[in-house]
Design brief:
The structure holds two protein chains of two kinds. By secondary structure, chain A is α/β, with parallel strands linked by helices. Chain A folds into two domains: 274 residues, NADH:ubiquinone oxidoreductase-like, 20kDa subunit (Rossmann fold), CATH 3.40.50.700; 129 residues, Cytochrome-c3 Hydrogenase, Chain A, domain 2. In chain A, the strands form three sheets. In chain A, strands 2-1-3-7-9 form a five-stranded parallel beta sheet, with helices on both faces. In chain A, strands 4-8 form a two-stranded antiparallel ribbon. A two-stranded antiparallel sheet of chain A has the order 5-6. The longest helix of chain A has 33 residues. Chain A is globular and about 105 Å long. By secondary structure, chain B is mostly helical. Chain B has one domain: Fumarate Reductase Cytochrome B subunit. Chain B has ten helices and two strands. In chain B, strands 1-2 form a two-stranded antiparallel ribbon. Classes of the chains: A alpha/beta, B mainly alpha. Chains A and B meet through helix 1, helix 13, helix 16 and helix 17 of A and helix 2, helix 3, helix 7, helix 8 and helix 9 of B. The complex binds protoporphyrin IX containing FE and iron/sulfur cluster. Protoporphyrin IX containing FE sits at the interface of chains B and A. Iron/sulfur cluster binds next to helix 13 of chain A.
């Protein structure tokens, strides 16, 4: 019942992806002052634990200040702020180590952590994420067991009500949550999350598992996996889905937070609009081929060589909201559709069952949640039509016979 | 006219016009909808992309038809209550008389016309409920279709202003959880892909409806011998004069 009420509430609170980007000079002047004051205040604070200086790191990585400023102006644009905010954004990036972050890993593949770590030669996005004051990250840190738990306690105590909680991975709810336990005390992932979230300033769910349950929640969802927003209520919560989440969007959210002290504008799935207010398909370089009806029919065919649209080999760009067709990955190097591999809708709920197949939806088997018969919509529909046809045929034949009898009787 | 028969009016000129607009639009919507779902032909292969625009035209036709359906549906919904000819809502209300008539007509169909205890001069309850089913299916196609359509207006702007996507969200966002409920899921959050699945599926239900509709009209014409099939052309049929 409760989830039904929740569902009804959701019906009437759905919002479009629209962000008002022209609020007038007065609004932006005021916002600028507010952000400036916040940055000035943060500057007076000491960096927390992470003593890395971003200037030094950028230099050792051979990134010039000019490139850094170019990056800052791109982030300013991404956050839909006027260009005059660029210096503030650059400052905010330099002050990333003033924001304490606790990172929890639950039921997942660590892909989002990997996305941050394994980039060939870190780009500015990744470097900036190196600078955040990561107070706790079980996968990355040296401490483990009781030691790790102690460290978590310390971090939670020291930064009570101030830390940003990043969560990666779904929460297994089945069997009282015992499908996933963490730490020496065997705390369930659910209890662990609830405990750490209690004194977080805001919770950021990264990756599709943490946001919508993702792959662990795919049929038949044996562990009863759900996303963070299904567990944590009454906290500012930001979803950054995708598999993995784009580091650019994580940076955007943190910078927005440092700059304004607030969470960015969110859509009805709690995704920041600056990142998820775009449909892949509407910003795709292959779109002209879609409109022309020029499709890759099979991998490696003539169409593939000519960069035709990937719709018929399963691209789900038309049903997917994310900014990868704009910001791409690894600082604009490339993205799935760019390499000739259709979008699998990884930033949408239930993407594993409903998006990630290499044919259009119309040709895909619909998976019944309980397993069972798998049919395409057209097979199912033709079945329905055949049944209707048989019914009609029987009725027609019977009517004919009955009619003949009547005539004979007359 | 056969002697002993009288001519009765069953459909106004507007109703007939609407019927044929809907019928041809439906054929167009199905052909273009199926192309959108799975592009099943290729044309003008040698032409450059700017010239051919095959998918774009299919989508354009699909959406233009959708707008025709929208307008038609709004008018029909109005006529349900305010028609000066016959107000269909009166035949849908579950009154004793309507229920009785509904089952009498159903029995007529099942007993292969052995039993016919109702007045066939008017549109009967069974007929009206059957058409209501169609109108509900069409409304559902419209609502899910408009939900799919508003995804393309992600910026929140449109050529006719921001009110349009805003209104579409307000009017159709509820189809997402409902569609997910219909398709079924193991994930806690409704997915917009289900709207597409359900939109496509509803088309097949409508086609099954159409198949039965055509059969039933022909069947009535043959067995009732009252020229029912002519209603949709001339607006009238013939019934035996009470002797
Ligand atoms: C207001 C009415 C309608 C609107 C606004 C509408 C809109 C749409 C849209 C936006 C799509 C997806 C196109 C794309 O992704 O580019 C679509 C697909 C489709 N429509 Fe409609 N439609 C409407 C009515 C109908 C009707 C009456 C039918 C047929 C009975 C129909 C059958 C289909 C089919 C089969 C698809 C393909 C679904 C798939 O496999 O992906 N639509 N429609
Ligand atoms: S490749 Fe995908 S996103 Fe790009 S135009 Fe084709 S269907 Fe749309």
């Amino acid at each position: 019942m409760a989830d039904k009420i929740e569902g009804v509430k959701k019906l009437f609170t759905s919002k479009s992806a629209r962000v008002e980007t022209n609020r007038g000079d007065a609004y932006y002047a005021k916002l600028f002052e507010k952000c400036q004051a916040r940055i000035d205040e943060l500057k007076t604070q000491q960096p927390i634990n992470n003593r890395l200086d971003i200037g030094d790191v950028l230099e050792t990585q051979g990134i010039e200040r000019r490139d850094f400023l170019k990056w800052a102006s791109a982030v300013t644009g991404m956050l839909m702020l006027p260009a005059s905010f660029t210096p503030l954004v650059a400052d905010a990036a330099l002050l990333m180590n003033r924001a304490p972050v606790i990172w929890l890993e639950l039921s997942d593949c660590a892909g989002n952590s990997e996305a941050l770590l394994r980039s060939d030669g870190p780009k500015i996005d990744e470097i900036v994420l190196d600078i955040i004051s990561l107070e706790f990250h079980e996968t990355l840190q040296a401490a483990s067991g009781h030691q790790a738990e102690k460290q978590l306690e310390d971090a939670m105590e020291t930064f009570k009500d101030k830390y940003l909680l990043f969560v990666e991975g779904a929460i297994p709810m089945g069997n009282n949550g015992t499908f996933g336990t963490i730490g020496a005390s065997g705390e369930t992932m659910h209890d662990h999350l609830v405990r750490v979230a209690k004194h977080a300033a805001a919770v950021v769910a990264v990756g599709s598992c943490a946001t919508f349950g993702g792959v662990p929640a795919a049929a038949p969802n044996p562990t009863g996996a759900v996303g963070v927003m299904d567990v944590i209520k009454g906290k500012p919560l930001i979803n950054i889905p995708a598999c993995p989440a784009n580091p650019a969007n994580m940076v955007g959210v943190i910078i927005h937070y440092i700059l304004t002290g607030q969470v960015p504008e969110l859509d009805s799935l709690l995704r920041p609009k600056f990142a998820f207010g775009y449909r892949i398909h509407d910003n795709c370089e292959r779109r002209a081929h879609f409109d022309a009806g020029e499709f890759v029919e099979e991998w490696g065919d003539e169409g593939a060589k000519n960069n035709f649209c990937l719709y018929k080999v399963g691209c789900k760009g038309p049903m997917t909201f994310n900014n990868c067709s704009i910001v791409r990955y690894n600082e604009g190097v490339n993205w799935p559709v760019g390499v000739g591999r259709g979008c699998i809708g990884c930033s949408e709920p239930d993407f594993w069952d409903k998006y990630a197949y290499e044919r259009p939806m119309a040709d895909a088997n619909i998976k019944a949640p309980t397993g069972g018969v798998e049919k395409t919509v057209d097979e199912f529909g033709l079945g329905l039509l055949t049944a209707a046809g048989i019914g009609i045929g029987i009725h027609a034949a019977a009517s004919l016979v009955a009619g003949k009898k009547e005539e004979a009787g007359e | 006219m056969k002697p002993g028969y009288k001519q009765v009016k069953r459909m106004t000129a507007f109703m007939r016009l609407n019927h044929w607009v809907v019928a041809f639009s439906m054929i167009g919507a199905v052909l273009t909808g199926l192309y959108i779902g799975h592009p099943y032909y290729q044309s003008m292969i040698a032409e450059p992309a700017v010239v051919k625009y095959v998918m774009a035209w299919n989508r354009w036709i699909h959406f233009m038809i959708a707008i025709i359906f929208d307008v038609s549906s709004i008018v029909i919904a109005y006529l349900y209550f305010f028609s000066r000819f016959e107000k269909p809502y009166k035949k849908i209300l579950p009154t004793g008389q309507n229920i009785k008539e509904f089952f009498e007509v159903l029995l007529n169909l099942i007993t292969l016309n052995r039993r016919k205890n109702f007045d066939s001069t008017h549109s009967d309850s069974f007929n009206t409920v059957f058409f209501l089913m169609f109108h509900l299916l069409l409304a559902w196609l419209l609502l899910t279709g408009l939900q799919l359509y508003v995804h393309g207006l992600a910026s929140g702007e449109s050529s006719i202003g921001a009110w349009w996507p805003w209104m579409l969200h307000l009017a159709t966002d509820w189809t997402v959880p409902v569609s997910t409920w219909m398709v079924g899921t193991t994930s806690p959050t409704p997915s917009i892909m289900d709207v597409r699945t359900v939109h496509h599926m509803t088309m097949w239900i409508v086609l099954a409806w159409v198949a039965f509709h055509i059969y039933y009209q022909v069947w009535r014409t043959i067995f009732w011998k009252e020229g029912d099939i002519g209603i949709v052309v001339s607006g009238t049929k013939f019934v035996k004069e009470e002797a």
